[in-house]
Amino acid sequence: MFLRAGLAGKRLLSSMAQSTTPIEDAMRAKITEALKPTTLEIHNDSHLHSHHKAMQGVTSKETHFRLTIVSPAFAGKLQPARHRMVYSLLKDEMAQEGGIHALQLKTRTPEEEPRAQAKE
Fold first, then answer.
1. Domain 21-119 - what CATH class?
2. How many of the other CB atoms lie within 10 Å of CB of 96?
């Protein structure tokens, strides 16, 4: 019985390693660890762009993302600096074949979030 439980645990770990969204998983982990966001929304819009000429022959389903990140780490920084922070975190995912092709970012501090939501 102990052996069966051990094998089931190995299968579970194996299936977790076979994620169908490895780029999204990596983005979530890196952003969460580095920026400690109070809000992190990741939208995969790849299906909306699969017909584009630049995407012909690309088999990846993780190429176009829209992110909303609310983090105290953005305090005192202008939007370009905030975006550079995120690009730096995701440089590997952006450089790999079939990786991130387009990234739309909304970066806010917790203090900015209520005002931004009121406008939307």
1. alpha beta
2. 12
